[in-house]
Amino acid sequence: MTLSQALTGSTRSRAWERAAAVAPHLLIFAAIGAEILALVALLPLTLDVWRDPAHYGHGDFKHFYESSKSLSLAGTYNPALGALLHPLTYLSLTHAFQAYFAMNVAALLAIAYLAQRAVDAPHAKLAMALGVLALPQTHWALRVGHFTEILAFVSLAGFLVAGKRPVIAGLLFAMLALKPQYLPVPVLYLLFTRNWRAFGSLVAVFAVMSLAGIVAAGVSSADAGGYYADRITYVIEDVAVGQSDLLLPVQQSWQYSWRGFLVSAGVEPNPLLIGDLLALSAGAMLFAWWRCTPSVARAAAALGMLLLAPYSTFYNWSMIAVAAALLVLWGLNASVFMNYVVTLLQEQSEPPMLGRVMSMYSLAFFLAMPLGYGLAGATTAALGSAATLLLNGAAAAAVGLLCLVGLRSVRELH
């Protein structure tokens, strides 16, 4: 190798290093811009709903309010929900909704605060906080009067303190029983990780909370048991039998569970296919618990709470912020990914070939973008946006798992 070739390779290497150092910051600022635009689009209506809930019908909060006022059991929700919300019923429906709305906003701000703690740079902190606040599903949950943000906060806090403060983690996870569809995965996670103190705390708080709700409702344990047995049977029939008349078509299209994805994609939601997809999701989650770092395992559990739910509508997926926050708290974000890719390529390449390797990487990256746009457009036109996102995510996960399992060179990377 001549001196001029060596100098050329060194110059290219320094140029790529500078580009790799600048690119993450540019991506962060681009993300901030997109998040501000999303807030500009979403926030006005959300604030209007808070200011004048009577005009928008109070959403599903009206159902919570009426059942809490009479301390009666409400659907598949835990009986303690009525007792916890009962103090709000001393206010008018509108004022109660506004107070309830404010509690959910406080939980959302707490999630944003926890998420931004993972990064140091001020612009990265801003991007993380805005990312939580600009999530469309979050605004939808606030508008329709659900307490998903509170459940998301207790989930995130529970996963974060499970290692050091297991009793508090169990208490936090027990609050998920207010909407029981979220509870099985955290329970399995605690059992899988042998966190017996957290599991014991969860069971104890769940039992006390449920019994207190039953006593407050003034019903016997037998009557309450029969009431919830009927509703559990109803849910099982929806999953196992696949009844298509349980919901209106427009509601089915809002579902983000596997059944909803299939309906949105125009595919008959066959119970066997739904079972296979649930089993695949559970297998991927268990694999992450078994082989990945604790932080990634917690993020997989948060995603599993959504993918393994028998019924999950659009606003429930505001809990995706939990998985995102856990991943970022682990350090997996766009800037880290870009730096890892460039660093890995540079470390695994011979110095004389470094310029060519990085050139091919750039060529492949920029060529893939328009091809990806075209493929995504065609797939979206044929199957819809939900199915396209699902297929893309499944394909990316499958390729990653195949490389990890089948390629020794990938497993031996350091």
Give an account of the 3D structure:
With 414 residues, the chain is an all-alpha fold. The chain has one domain. It contains 21 helices and no strands. The protein has helices spanning 3-51, 53-56, 61-69, 80-85, 93-116, 122-133, 136-143, 148-161, 166-174, 184-192, 196-217, 221-241, 249-254, 258-264, 271-291, 294-307, 320-330, 334-348, 354-383, 385-406, 408-411. Helix 1 (3-51) runs parallel beside helix 7 (136-143). The longest helix is centred in the N-terminal third of the chain and has 49 residues, at 3-51. The two termini are 29 Å apart.
Give the SSE layout.
Blueprint: H1 3-51, H2 53-56, H3 61-69, H4 80-85, H5 93-116, H6 122-133, H7 136-143, H8 148-161, H9 166-174, H10 184-192, H11 196-217, H12 221-241, H13 249-254, H14 258-264, H15 271-291, H16 294-307, H17 320-330, H18 334-348, H19 354-383, H20 385-406, H21 408-411
